[in-house]
Amino acid sequence: MQYAEPEAGPASWTLEPDIQIGSVEGTDDAFVRVVRVLPAADGSVILLDQGLTAVMRYLSSGQLAGRVGGAGPGPGEFVIPTDVGWWAGGDSIWVTDGVLPRVTIFSAEGEFGRTIPIDGGGFSPASMTAGWAQPLDDGAIASVVQETGGWDWGPVRVLRVGNDEGPSMEIARAERAESRIPIQWDQPGMMAHPVPDGPFLVFSPHGSPIFVVEREAADSGEQASVRIRTTNAMGELLWEVDLPYQPTPIGNAVRDSINDATREMFQGMASFRDRSAREIDAIFERTITIPSYHPPLRSVVPADDGSIWVVWTDVGGGSEATVVSRDGVAIAQVSVPGGLAAVAGDYAWAIESGMYEVPIIHRHRIVRR
Question: Is pTM beyond 0.70 here?
């Protein structure tokens, strides 16, 4: 799908509600915890439900066409399924597991094909965090890792480790990790900053291109930008662009909410740290600093055509997406649901919570003007 570069700034697109998949009635259509949505351009979709330990395929009409998986370590089973995508060529799907170090391949109709063992690309558990595996569009496997050394966390790296190609090769990198705050207990410790500022690392549904979107707390309310860097499965740079945005002030109400939640977490440590509540409170006061501004970057959603939808939180609390083409050009702005999860063809898909927090899947038709 090709788009002309806008001559007078990004176009304005809209989303029109189309169909809904799922129910809160406790029937076979009730989901538990949908973590991945993999749509096809024709409006059909594959859903990965971690709570059901299964992958379901739905026709463009919204009718269930079949499911694969089940709890267990056997062939075609999962312990904690974490992701699903199109296998090389697009006529099969892969599923990764958060416990079993393997990728499972199924046909598009759900027939079990084979399993592929994966590793961390030569890093020992002592020198890397638990990352994840990601099949690429040419059949190779990438491993996402983060080097650690004591309390210092290195860059997030994407290593190409599959296809019997010899030593692993770095094909993408996010220089900044999530900010961490040093805490002086009996011994030095570390915690993630309560205001998220880590990078987004996302893969196309076909495994390539790979997008790294840097996100860093803003120093002031002046216009800033986030950098998007895009590489292919061999690590070759496709494009790099700075996307401008207006930093959002962190108001007193939000600041108080963050402080209260973090303070409560610290107070919960008082008993097993053998510290008084007053001592814990003093550690909190000298440790936590909330920035005045932050980039209102909510999520990054790759589309099946090589473009990405960069989702921002607007001043009213809604969500607005900037659509960046496969060439790195901002071509459209569109209001989107907060749970935007996937884009393919003429459809955008969202995961939204229904009654009792049961996930409901909504398909929206994209109206391009």
Answer: yes
